[in-house]
Design goal:
By secondary structure, the protein is of the alpha/beta class. The radius of gyration is 31 Å and the shape is elongated. This is N-acetylneuraminate (7)9-O-acetyltransferase. It is a multi-pass membrane protein.
Length: 756
């Protein structure tokens, strides 16, 4: 990739994804809404000059501002448009030929005292071909006229955006007899003359008249659908208008999913400090390596944050100091973060829009399911939701979610609703895992809390600094973090009720149920009281964590979408552990969970419930209405899956090691995809190898998975250092962390002030 101008690519090259979605070469095109178009063009004057084809483009352009506009008015005359609410003026000036009249109009702007338009779109040729019957003399005169106009356009281009629209090809078989002389051969000759003359001036390199040639490519694919063989179908005109809007507005509005024509964002103060820190870490580690010249390797076992199992402390090599271990971790992390920045902040790699097809989603799903079944092994234990099974569950769900994101399947409502269940299942495991840990072990110490919070948030905090994004942007981590704290608070608050205490008296079980009922009441109240919810999270410092685009609405929406499922996970854990304690279930290898009759009935009900939910989700017509029902009904499919997976003893005794491997790094996979697998903050797709989509996905996926795995190892290493078991040492570390965040807040305030 030569690092060319993405504006130039947007105006000159691209391809269709499907029938109607235009993909510019190397960059992403934003679909502007009416409100966005108005905000961009406020107090602007736009002029379209040319023939009936330019008039079509004019109408498509003003419909982006006001979709109610109808194509009425004098066909062969000037047409004004004004949006008084935003002070926008858009005029069409009828000049079907490049002649003295057009030159005089352009000269009045370039050399006269008349106010210059901010955007000028010019193009004409077919009338010259038609009137002069395609004669060579007309072409020669066209060259003379455009040569006289070119210096004026270049002069205007110093202060205005000037676009010369090349002539689209025609569909010669459909042309009327009066237009038969307009051939593609003649159009090519006129276009060639225009490009050669407009690009010949030395002054043109400073103030370039932009040649709008992409319309030709679009027309080549769609002109067959033309009504008369000359004018483009409406969808193609709309695409051209959207390209014009992207060329002008992307640098003003800076949409996340509009990478075309956007300059690279400048480094913030915090990013510069992070760069210096990682650079010093790399040099520091290299110095240590040169001094010691001995590598170390540690045996680690990965922690499941939701399972509640402690990670065995890493076995330290005596020759490796804590400082060297820190430098080693930050050295690797620095190199990885450099890759993150280059992929999604620097204009080094290409980015493309997503485009959904059923095959792009379902074929990879089938492929990974086959792989998962191939890697089947026996579990170490046969309990319900044992460690291997929960890793497997998280693994295949994460892979499905990744395929969902890269294929753009959110546009297909049945798939969207099923993916919502998978996200809910993650949160269900959060409730189940953390409740089980606190209930069984009764460990409410600060060490446990700090370990979980560090492992959940470390990567996100680093990305917030390096990628200049707010904490709430990575919405899933704030979600699981808040729910962990809610679970902790529910069980830790007086009276602390744990399994050991409850075994002495059944009344403690009722006390715990009372706590859960209070939690459910609070959830219900907050879900229907947006004002109260926003007030709670609008207080500083919570507002710094949960605001996105200046408010906490996005956080409220995300929280509300799965508000009951963590409670369901806690309740399921309580019931399951109670049944287990009273030996009402059989968890032996190969044994059904209940008696044969009960197991068969429950299995039948589970399968019917699972399929019923899928049928309901597939018949959804409105995303808003289905999202309203989702929090209450998603647990049906989750519980059905758990029972189907665990009632038969032979199914409970095996697991897929392939899925389990991915499950151990599921959190890192979910977060890393934002910047090094997808692009433009998940809105597009990262392109490392242009022109080879399948090969590109293979390469970018391999790097993405390796990076996620490495970050998981780094997080585990740092957790042992940053969060020690000794309480006095831990307190000192917490004070250091508080100082770090205070400094971060101070520099963030400085950044905000400088931006303002």
């Amino acid at each position: 990739f030569k690092g060319g101008d993405t504006c130039e690519y947007l105006l000159s090259s691209g391809r269709f994804l499907g029938e109607k979605v235009w993909q510019p070469h190397s960059c992403m095109m934003h679909k502007y809404k009416n409100s966005e178009a108005k905000n961009c063009l406020i107090d602007k004057h736009v002029v379209f000059i040319g023939d009936s084809r330019i008039r079509q483009l004019f109408y498509s352009f003003i419909k982006l501002i006001n979709p109610q506009v109808k194509e009425e008015g004098i066909k062969h005359g000037n047409i004004p448009f004004e949006d008084k609410s935003a002070s926008i003026k858009v005029d069409f000036l009828w000049y079907p030929e490049v002649n003295g009249s057009m030159r005089q109009r352009i000269k009045s702007w370039a050399e006269g005292s008349v106010a210059k338009p901010h955007i000028i779109v010019v193009g004409a040729a077919t009338w010259s071909i038609k009137i002069h019957n395609g004669s060579n003399e007309a072409l020669a005169q066209y060259k003379i006229n455009i040569t006289s106009i070119a210096p004026l356009l270049e002069k205007l281009a110093i202060s205005s955006d000037v676009y010369w629209v090349l002539q689209d090809p025609v569909y010669e078989d459909m042309l009327s007899e009066s237009r038969k002389m307009i051939t593609n051969e003649k159009i090519d000759a006129y276009n060639e003359a225009a490009v050669r003359i407009l690009n010949s001036s030395s002054r043109n390199s400073k103030a370039k008249v932009k040649v709008f040639s992409v319309s030709k490519l679009i027309a080549q694919e769609t002109i067959m659908k033309s009504a008369d063989g000359l004018h483009l179908p409406e969808s193609s005109r709309d695409t051209n208008a959207m390209i014009l809007m992207n060329v002008y507005c992307n640098k003003i509005m800076k949409p996340i999913d509009g990478s075309c024509c956007q300059p690279q964002p400048p480094l913030t103060l915090i990013q510069k400090i992070a760069f210096c820190f990682f650079t010093l870490s790399i040099f520091g580690y290299l110095i240590f390596s040169l001094i010691h010249r001995n590598n170390y390797r540690k045996n680690k076992s990965c922690t499941d944050l939701e399972s509640g199992e402690e990670k065995k402390p890493a076995i330290s090599t005596p020759n490796v100091s804590t400082l060297e271990m820190l430098l080693h971790c930050f050295c690797k992390l620095g190199l990885i973060m450099t890759y993150f920045y280059l992929c999604d902040r620097a204009n080094l790699f290409m980015k493309e829009n997503k485009f959904y097809t059923h095959s792009s989603f379902f074929i990879p799903i089938v492929y990974i399911l086959v792989l998962g079944v191939f890697y089947t092994e026996n579990t170490k234990e046969t309990k319900v939701l044992n460690r291997e099974q929960t890793d497997e569950w998280k693994g295949w769900m994460q892979l499905v979610i990744l395929i969902y994101h890269i294929s753009g399947a959110s546009t297909f409502l049945p798939v969207y609703m099923h993916i919502r269940v998978l996200v809910a299942a993650y949160l269900f495991q959060t409730g189940y895992g953390h409740f089980s840990y606190f209930w069984i072990k009764g460990d409410f110490g600060v060490y446990r809390v700090c370990q979980v919070l560090f492992r959940l948030n470390f990567l996100v905090v680093v990305l917030c600094i390096v990628m200049d994004r707010p904490y709430q942007f990575y919405y899933f981590v704030p979600l699981v973090t808040v729910w962990f704290m809610i679970i902790y608070a529910t069980l830790a608050v007086w009276p602390q009720i744990v399994q050991k205490k409850a075994n002495g008296s059944c009344l403690w079980h009722f006390g715990l149920l009372l706590k859960l009922i209070c939690l459910l009441t609070c959830i219900y109240f907050l879900s229907y009281s947006q004002g109260a919810f926003e007030k709670i999270f609008s207080f500083w410092p919570l507002s710094k964590c949960f605001e996105l685009n200046g408010n906490v609405y996005e956080w409220w929406f995300r929280w509300k979408l799965d508000r009951y499922v963590v409670f369901h996970g806690m309740l399921f854990a309580f019931i399951y552990l109670a049944l287990q304690k009273h030996q009402m279930i059989s968890e032996g290898k190969g044994d059904p969970l209940f008696s044969n009759r009960v197991s068969n009935v429950l299995l039948f009900i589970s399968i019917v419930s699972f399929l019923t939910y899928s049928i309901w989700a597939s018949s959804c017509k409105n995303k808003t209405e289905c999202n309203e029902l989702h929090p209450s009904v998603s647990v049906v499919q989750i519980l059905a899956f758990i029972l189907i997976r665990n009632i038969p003893g032979y199914v409970r005794s095996v697991y897929s090691s392939f899925f389990a491997w991915f499950g151990k790094i599921s959190l890192e996979l979910f977060i890393c995809q934002y910047h090094i697998w997808l692009a433009a903050d998940t809105k597009g797709i990262l392109v490392l190898i242009p022109g080879y989509p399948m090969f590109n996905v293979l390469v970018s996926t391999f790097i993405f998975v390796c990076v996620a795995h490495e970050i998981s190892q780094i997080t585990n290493d740092l957790a042992q250092i940053v969060v020690p078991k000794d309480n006095s040492t831990l307190l000192k570390r917490l004070l250091c962390i508080a100082g770090f965040f205070s400094g971060l807040h101070f520099f963030s305030a400085m950044q905000d002030q400088s931006r303002y």
